[in-house]
Amino acid sequence: MTDRQMNDTELEALFAAGRAVRATPSAALLARVMDDAMAETGARATPEPRPHGAPRGALAGLVAALGGWPALGGLATAGVVGIWIGYAAPGGLEAVTAAMLGSGYDVTDMVPSLDTYLTEG
């Protein structure tokens, strides 16, 4: 429908016609916009004073610096679990570390196999 390509002269003529017609707002509209702007500026000129909270203690400041009570709860849980694992020393962990660290690696383990990609069917 409108796939016609315009050349530069046609395009320039179109832009010139657009530049020739200037729509100017009326003086009444500009006065109303200015009145609204001045009313809004006057309303925003006096900010409301913020209420000062009660002074915080050292513990409250530390809790806030760590991220609040949820973060402090996670930190306490991680600390207790770390102490528990360190003190209880689970016996099953030795079998896992022996199986993982006791074996060595061969060069063929480092090269990926393409057998699964090359199978047909």
TrEMBL record:
Domain of life from the UniProt record: Bacteria
Protein name from the UniProt record: Dihydroorotate dehydrogenase
Organism whose genome encodes this protein: Rhodovulum marinum
